[in-house]
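Our collaborator T.R. sent over the components below with a one-line note: 'Predict the complex.' Nothing else. No constraints on interfaces, no templates requested, no preferences about which chain binds where. So this is a plain run: every listed entity goes in together, and whatever single assembly comes back becomes the starting point for the next discussion.
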Amino acid sequence: MSSAAGLLLLALMSAAGLYFDGGSGQHLAYIGPGAGFAFLGSFLTLLWAFAVSAATMLTWPVRMAWKAAKRRRSLKKARVKKLIFVGLDGYDPRTAERLMAEGRLPNLSRLAKEGSYRRLRTTFPSLSPVAWSTFATGVSPARHNIFDFLNRNLKSYLPELSSSRVNKPRRVFKIGRYHIPLSKPSVDLRRKSIPFWKILGQHEVDCTILRIPITFPPEKFNGRLLSAMCTPDLRGTQGSFSFFSTRNESVTYETGSRYPLQRSGNVVKGVLEGPDHPLVPDAGKLGVPFTIYLNGARNSATLEIGGEKYPLRVGEYTPWVPVTFKAGVAVKARGICRFLLNQTEPDVNLYVTPINIDPENPALPISHPSYYSAYLAKLLGAFATVGMAEDTWALNEGAIDEEAFLRQAWMIHEEREKMFFNALDRLREGVAACVFDASDRIQHMFYRYLEGRADGPLADTIEKMYQRMDELVGRVFRYVDEETVLFVLSDHGFGSFRRGINLNTWLLDHGYLALKDGAETAGPYFKGVDWSRTKAYTLGLAGLYLNIAGREAEGIVQPGAEAEAVKAELIEKLSGLKDPATGETAIQRVYATNRLYRGPYLEDAPDLIVGYNDGYRTSWAAAQGIVEREVFTDNPKPWSGDHSVDPVLVPGVLFSNRKIAAEDPGIEDLAPTALELFGLPTPGHMEGKSLFQAAAPA
Amino acid sequence: MAGYSSPQEFVEHVLEKELSKIEESESDEEILNKLKGLGYID
Amino acid sequence: MLASLVLFLISVATGIGLLWVFRRTSDQAAIRATKKRLQARLLELRLYADDPRVVLAAQKALLVENLRYFALMLRPALYATVPVVILLIALDGFYGRRPLAPGETAVLTAVLDGQAAPDEPVSLEAPTGIAVETPAVHALARREVSWRIRAEEPVAGQLRLTSEGETVLMPVVAGEGLHCCLYGRRVRSRLAWLLAPGAAPLDARWVKEIKLDYPAAEVSYFGLRTHWLVWFLVFSMAAAFLLKGRFRVTV
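Returned assembly:
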């Protein structure tokens, strides 16, 4: 053996955990596979790292020259090096202004004083998916195609998620009861137009986009992105919790599911239900069994799931627990969830969060590049991936209490903060943007405290949340220098939701909607509606739709003059509609969408957008296409704040460290502003304009 | 072309509209399952 | 064939045993976390390839995490070393060397004690079937006396070395195939015996060590012949790798 080969062998054997003994040199001692892997793994890791780094360093001048050449063409007019967006979903200007006046938001006050503060016009309707899509694209809903959380299917009148669609594999090989997919399920993003970060990426501006709504599935672009709102959970829902109990009770939840626990002494067993069996259509759902070992009266227990044990304490969430649903030898779906032991006596109650897609091994794409979510999870720890991760429904339905909800919301918020600061730490030139949702979810669930309808130890929760967000902004200041522009913004504000309005019932009462067989009510999603005699209906949160002939499957209203006439009638009758129980104006104004915006997707928009007054919103039932007996109903749920009202009532906030010229900025102006800051012109299709350009004289 | 961000988007939109005419609808159960958990909707 | 099968089974059992030791003695949570951070830093090199500052920082972090990983491996490796070394010595006695084939020669060497005269006569008697081909050859500087012996027929006996009236025995084996406990070395020092134990320690005053250089053995699998330790390494690591998930061990 040559000396070189000998050295190589020695290196490899050393790497594999072998060493020569200290005696005669005859024996080779071998520590074992563990050390072998350790040495080999580390050796290869370092070798790989060295190779990648060497390649990076060697090719860096060439790549930089290439990028510089590309950038020089377009970015010579760039005015900044860094652009930072802090999105605070639902951060309301009225509350913020009050707290600033009281000196309780020092960092935002500083921004307002040294830079700018404006109320930010939101979109019609004032909903997060709509508004953040406009933020991203700089266009109105008629150009990005997101009008609500829901669309209606024109053939079936059934609702569909407006933002994305998960399609089953197109080709399936059937053997007996097994259906083996020959292709991956595809996911379509229904948001149209082009986000500003994609344009910046084309010009070599580095962007990290975190949790901006309506980014699932993630679009490919020259940058990094983590998806947000409307990312499903592992069950394919928008987030459905599980509640386990030893109490044999027939409780059904709207969103979560209740499951039994079998108790035998101090041992409690249950099965966590996962996604449908992917290979056998009728096999039901996959499950992972778990066991809880109770530890007497100490309010604690041990959870065993997937062969791992986790301590449980009453009232405390576990860390993210990985769960693997196996459908065969190599078919697995990996998720993560948290467990919360609610009580151990007399009954054992256990709440489990929705099973989030595991960011380390995502079952569906949730980031770009695909391994970005794995990078974040491995470096910073597992994190919630489902679109609306804060489990508002678990609180609505009593599966958890307010304190548990708050803890969950803040845990998720901390995960987002870690990701955001990870991105800021690495940002030298380019854009970092992150949307924080806790501000929205907490206001939804605690608004009744803010307006004095409820009292208790958590009465100041919303104000504390505003202050905590202010502290977050303070920490972002560390990353802001003279060549950095910082925007802190919200997509909309907030109002009260005390009373629900069922416009389907109102339409029935006023002859615009008809039911079959003389029925007085109709079930979810228009079960029992006679479409051959229906002119208008409502579904989702903001819109009224006409039943247009040639558009809807059973449309009867002729497009053109008749449709315009029906719209005019509805606008006239609904604008200023009073609540007979309170005497308050329930609907401020109704807007015809073809007067609000123009674009190629206008035909998919609701025909009318209803501007509810503060305190009112479409009722829970109307959003589902139900026709009830009463038009007006009380909203008894903890979900007591909302923003699905007249957008004029709920503008967002806009803070910047720079003086902005626009006096009446809109959320559509942020994308053109981002482009302009990096020296790029506003594309012709964008409707917003840079905030740093003075408004043209009227 | 007005309002589209690119000619490609225009072409995709035309194709999508045509495809939607022959697209099969999902079952009611599948649709409702997908919407579960959307906070704003009951 | 049987010897190869036994080595395979022992290797697999060792892999499993060491997984158990790892599970019981290592900080699995810390190892998992460290490995994840290592993987994250590798991904970071790809994600931020255009930023040399981030790449350098990731490299530094990789080094630190590697050191941490080694440190976490130290404890289970220490626990594993003692039983594995004992096992390896036992296995080496069987698989490390083979008996002299009939007609084959080997050198027998006695290392004399420092107090003894370097040219003190040492006599050698061989059992039937072993021929002593040369007279004793003294290497005075190294204080060694050597003979060349030759196997004439299969035998398992004792070589008798005598000096200063004391006789010590050195086992000798000739024949085909492998042989159990084929130790080519006897030593007097207890410390040396601990480092390389073989047959029982010597108790004569005049000699420190006796060595018989049996030919090295090789073990064959899949038509490939090589040192048994290489196969042991391959099989034990493969078993550990394949079964670590089942044993829920992260290494």
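Summary for T.R.: Residues 15 and 44 of chain A are 9 Å apart (CA to CA).
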